[in-house]
Amino acid sequence: MVTVQQLKNELTKDLELFRNDGTEYRQETAELSLKVLGNVHTLTPFMDRARTFKVVSNELKEADTERKKMWLRC
Questions:
Q1: From CA 15, how far away is CA 13, in angstroms rounded?
Q2: Rounded to an integer, what distance in angstroms lies between the CA atom of residue 30 and that of residue 33?
Q3: Residue 66 to residue 74: CA distance in whole angstroms
Q4: Rounded to the nearest 10 degrees, what angle do helices 24-37 and 49-59 cross at?
Q5: Where are the beta strands (DSSP E) in 1-66?
Q6: Digits of tens for pLDDT over the chain (74 positions)?
Q7: pLDDT digits (tens, 9 = 90+) for 7-27
Q8: d(CA 66, CA 16)
Q9: Burial class (CB in 10 A: 0-12, 13-18, 19+), 22
Q10: CA angle 9, 5, 48 (to 5 degrees)
Q11: Residue 63 carries which DSSP code?
């Protein structure tokens, strides 16, 4: 199973890639993903769609619904 740190490392790599050759939407999505992961210590909540949406909604109160739903498609 992937650890939170491993996922953060991969998202950081993606963010750098998107900053150089990606859309603004993908860059912002990677930034928001890192923000969500900044306050979690386990990936267990992300194993269930309803719990995922709750965690993301709590962490990204200001984000639009489409961004939050992006997590459900992962």
A1: 5
A2: 5
A3: 13
A4: 100
A5: none
A6: 889 999 999 999 999 999 999 998 899 888 988 998 988 889 998 899 889 888 888 888 776 666 666 666 65
A7: 999 999 999 999 999 998 899
A8: 23
A9: middle
A10: 110
A11: S
